[in-house]
Design a protein that fits this description.
The complex is a heterodimer of chains A (342) and B (277).
Chain A lengths: L6 H20 L7 H10 L14 H35 L12 H16 L9 H20 E2 L2 E2 L1 H24 L5 H9 L11 H16 L1 H7 L3 H6 L4 H23 L5 H13 L3 H25 L8 H22 L1
Antiparallel strand pairs in A: 1-2
Chain B lengths: L5 E12 L6 E12 L3 E5 L6 H8 L7 E6 L2 E2 L5 H7 E4 L11 H6 L14 H13 L15 H14 L4 E5 L7 H18 L2 E5 L3 H7 L2 E6 L2 E6 L1 H4 L2 H8 L2 E6 L6 E6 L4 H4 L4
Parallel strand pairs in B: 3-8, 3-9, 6-7, 7-8
Antiparallel strand pairs in B: 1-2, 1-4, 4-5, 9-10, 11-12
Helix pairs in contact in B: 4-5
Classes of the chains: A mainly alpha (342), B alpha/beta (277).
Chain lengths: 342, 277
């Protein structure tokens, strides 16, 4: 009712995000002190770069600025994208169990990535990189799902979920077939499937970051009609929403965000399912606040999950998807139990 | 019925469902003029096409033939938001998947009046408040919709429809799931609206006696078209009911309301009322 009732949530989560970013950038096995790390990051900001005199080894600067900062930015981008896409899918499909991968995007991307690895045999090959291959696979899967569900000019959301299952299972079968024929790169593919943010550097996030950001903002702008869609399509239409058009636009934007996230970081599970639920539990289901706040919460969640993935078994890494599921699954179970009592 | 302004003109419409091979004609050659500020009840057996007719009027169903005009403008020419300012549609089922508050749900009724990124102002909040007071939902405004009873939910959904400030209200079985007290409560609100704000109400009802009591006209749908149309006295005759519902009705005049009162027996129950047909 109060227009500004969310303002403290925005303020808190923004502060949380900045603090998390700085802290997680200083954590690691290279033995760089927190103050050095902060100074290096600050020295890269405009206006401050003239004031701060470098007192650190150039090796430290490389680790912080060329490795950890872009990696953290990727984590924020992927985390916020997956959370917003998940919340949008849940609202659009009126299904609290929906996640960004419900329309077969993850398995499509996995087939694309595995194909790229089988054909070229080299990670990040020049012939056809894993990232574009995964993106194409993901978009292809969504395209198939949408057209399978389309009847005349209409797409029923129930049919959409079912076609997602169908295409997903088919893609999984293709993936299994590829995997048993893949002797040399099996480890790479499995690692990719479980999700990892350790690739890339600055190059990995430039153009896709821009598109993801724009699509995420686009989804946030569609929050009001999305609220009406959550009331059922008949109601939404009765209130003046062009439901078929809205469905298409949201599907395209959410799929784009998800496909880019998957192609950058592999299939990181649970962020897109759990984060929207947690935020909804805290602030309610109004998508006008839910979508942007989920973006913040998703970014923070994945920052910390990735940091854990880096340090638990340091110096070796575990896939971040393992960490998110490890934290996410029990937490979600706890939420389910708590809801039951209400 | 004389000299009354026609607000909705339904002209010879045919409605079909289904694919290319097995299409099913639900309504065929149906015509009906709906007058401004009247309450018209749509009655008929299950599957006779009552809901289909409402969907057709709400522009949620493509017509296979014929045309529907609202204020002399064909339905297909209306922009969705413009139509939603004229006409509010309360469907039979209202899925409540997420725990919106009652206030948030009623405020959704302002959607057609707001531009893409325009936020609600004091005037919108005032309208929400007045429709909530009219439907007795103001006390529920901070409650979670999922925690409400069926009767309360129905009032909330009605409040959202009123918040659209419509000239026409389409209601698909608004009282079917409610107990007697709430049935009468909802119908009284509707009647009050029609009288005070000149809202035209088209209402699908199953209860013939309540339909007789609250509607000025009834349209009895059978065999894909209108079987009988007119005042409750004209429509609710033993002959009409027997042929449409395939049963054995007994109609008398209710001494309190002066309206027809229908008691229905099965065809096998002849002996109970001592009638022979």
């Amino acid at each position: 009712m109060n227009k500004h009732k969310y303002i403290w949530w925005y303020a808190g989560l923004t502060a949380g995000l900045i603090i998390s970013f700085v802290i997680t950038s200083t954590i690691g096995s290279a033995g760089i002190s927190a103050w050095t790390a902060i100074a290096i990051i600050l020295s890269k900001l405009p206006f401050l770069n003239n004031i701060i005199e470098p007192f650190w080894a150039s090796m430290s600067e490389t680790i912080i600025w060329q490795v950890r900062v872009p990696r953290n930015l990727t984590a924020m981008l992927v985390g916020s994208g997956l959370a917003v896409a998940g919340a949008s899918f849940q609202g659009l499909l009126r299904n609290p169990l929906a996640d960004p991968y419900i329309l077969g995007i993850s398995s499509g991307a996995a087939v694309g990535a595995a194909l790229s690895l089988t054909v070229t045999g080299v990670f990040s090959s020049v012939i056809f990189g894993v990232t574009p291959a995964a993106f194409i696979g993901a978009m292809l899967a969504v395209f198939l799902v949408y057209n399978l569900a389309k009847l005349g000019n209409r797409v029923a959301v129930e049919t959409l979920i079912l076609s997602g299952v169908v295409v997903g299972s088919f893609m999984t079968a293709v993936l299994s077939l590829l995997l048993i024929r893949m002797y040399s790169n099996l480890h790479q593919v499995v690692f990719w499937l479980m999700g990892s943010l350790g690739k890339g550097g600055w190059e990995g996030i430039t153009w896709s970051a821009l598109i993801m950001l724009l699509a995420t903002i686009g989804l946030c702008l569609l929050a009001r009609p999305l609220n009406l869609m959550a009331m059922g399509e008949t109601v939404a239409q009765g209130l003046g929403v062009s439901t078929e058009r809205l469905k298409r636009v949201i599907l395209v934007l959410a799929s784009l965000v998800t496909a880019l996230a998957v192609s950058i970081a592999g299939t990181i599970g649970f962020v897109g399912l759990v984060v929207p639920h947690i935020v909804r539990l805290l602030i309610g289901p109004d998508h006008r606040a839910l979508l942007p706040l989920s973006a913040f919460a998703g970014a923070i969640f994945l920052l910390w999950a990735d940091t854990l993935a880096r340090i638990i078994l340091a110096p070796s890494e575990i896939p971040v998807g393992v960490v998110t599921a490890f934290i996410g699954a029990p937490f979600f179970g706890y939420l389910l139990r708590r809801r039951k009592q209400i | 019925m004389q000299n009354q302004k026609v607000i909705i003109k339904i002209d010879n419409i045919t409605c079909k469902y289904g694919g290319k091979r097995d299409d099913k004609t639900i309504l065929e050659g149906l015509s009906l003029d709906i007058h401004a500020a009247e309450i018209i009840g749509i009655i008929g057996p299950n599957g006779s096409g009552k809901s289909t007719l409402l969907k057709a009027i709400a522009a949620q169903l493509a017509l296979a033939a014929g045309s529907i005009s609202i204020n002399d403008q064909p339905l297909y020419k209306w922009k969705p938001k413009q139509l939603a300012k004229q006409l509010a549609f309360v469907p039979q089922d209202n899925p409540m998947t997420f725990a919106y508050t009652v206030w948030e749900i009623v405020m959704m009724g302002r959607y057609p009046h707001l531009d893409f990124l325009e936020s609600e102002d004091e005037k919108d909040r005032e309208i929400v408040r007045s429709s909530m007071e009219l439907t007795n939902t103001w006390e529920l405004r901070n409650r979670d919709i999922q925690a409400l009873s069926g009767g309360e939910r129905q009032r909330v959904v009605l409040a959202r429809a009123l918040t659209q400030k419509p000239k026409i209200l389409l209601l698909d079985e608004p009282i079917t799931a409610l107990d007697v007290q709430h049935q009468v409560e909802i119908l009284n609100i509707i009647k009050q609206l029609s009288e005070q704000q000149q809202v035209t109400v088209i209402c699908v009802l199953h209860d013939l006696n309540l339909a007789a009591r609250y509607c000025e006209r009834l349209a009895l749908i059978h065999n894909r078209t209108i079987h009988a149309l007119g005042s409750p006295q004209q429509v609710l005759t033993e002959e009409h009911i027997a042929s449409v519902y395939n049963c054995n009705p007994f109609v008398m005049t209710n001494p309190l309301t002066g309206m027809p009162e229908v008691t229905v027996f099965s065809n096998a129950d002849d002996k109970i009322i001592g009638k022979s047909r």
